């Protein structure tokens, strides 16, 4: 059974060969954004795979949507074939909130008072 590790969460799960990375993420409790339900329609489920040889080759749908050279993969189309490490991008909304909180903290620490 392939073992899939999701970073930066560090969560790991053993899955059946052929399980999509999106399904593996759900099983592991890792949030991957999606809107189309896994049919290569929304492009929101993009991830990076550290070693591309540990997952299935690009599907035709991925080639059409992302091209051949992109190092991103659609997690709903990519299947785990060996032990794989997957990099999940931070949710854009969470990233914006985090940056704002960091800015506020810096202002408070470096303030005039
Ligand atoms: S879930 Fe929409 S493209 Fe993968």
How would you explain this protein's 3D organization?
Pfam families: Fer2. One of its GO terms (molecular function) is electron transfer activity. This is (2Fe-2S)-binding protein. Its cofactor is [2Fe-2S] cluster. Residues 2-92 form the 2Fe-2S ferredoxin-type domain. The protein is α+β, with helices and mostly antiparallel strands and 113 residues long. It has a single domain (3-109), classed as Ubiquitin-like (UB roll) (Roll). The chain has helices spanning 21-28, 60-66, 92-109, and strands at residues 3-7, 11-14, 46-49, 72-74, 84-87. It has a 5-stranded mixed β-sheet with strand order 2-1-5-3-4, covered by helices on one side. A hairpin with a 3-residue loop joins strand 1 (3-7) and strand 2. It is globular. The model has no long low-confidence stretch (mean pLDDT 92).
Q: What tags apply to this protein structure?
A:
113 residues; alpha+beta; Ubiquitin-like (UB roll); five-stranded mixed beta sheet; 3 helices; 5 strands; 29% helix; globular; binds FE2/S2 (inorganic) cluster
Rg calc: 17 Å
The quaternary structure here is single chain
CATH overall fold name = Ubiquitin-like (UB roll)
Assigned CATH class: Alpha Beta
Task: Tally the helices.
Answer: 3
CA(first)-CA(last) distance:
58 Å
In what order do the strands lie side by side in the largest sheet? Answer: 2-1-5-3-4
Per DSSP E runs of 2 or more residues, the count of β-strands stands at: 5
CATH superfamily: Beta-grasp domain
Measured as a percent range, the helix fraction is 25-40%
Residue share in β-strands: 15-25%
Bound molecules: FE2/S2 (inorganic) cluster
Give the overall form: globular
Helix and strand succession? EEHEHEEH
What low-confidence regions span 5 or more consecutive residues with pLDDT below 50? none
Structural class: alpha+beta
Q: Based on the coordinates given, report the CATH architecture.
A: Roll
What's the story with the biggest beta sheet?
5 strands, mixed
Biased composition (Basic and acidic residues): 59-73
Pfam family, one: Fer2
InterPro entries: 2Fe-2S_ferredoxin-like_sf, 2Fe-2S_ferredoxin-type, Adrenodoxin-like, Beta-grasp_dom_sf
Region (Disordered): 54-73
């Amino acid at each position: 059974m392939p073992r899939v590790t999701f970073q930066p969460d560090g969560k790991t799960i053993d899955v059946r060969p052929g399980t999509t990375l999106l399904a593996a993420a759900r099983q592991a409790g890792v949030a991957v954004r999606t809107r189309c339900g896994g049919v290569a329609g929304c492009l929101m489920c993009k991830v990076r795979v550290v070693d591309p040889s540990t997952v299935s080759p690009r599907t035709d749908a991925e080639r059409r949507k992302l091209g051949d050279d992109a190092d991103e993969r659609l997690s709903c189309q990519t299947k785990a074939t060996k032990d794989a490490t997957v990099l999940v991008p931070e949710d854009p909304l969470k990233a914006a909130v985090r940056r704002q909180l960091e800015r506020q903290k810096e202002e408070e620490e470096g303030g005039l008072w």
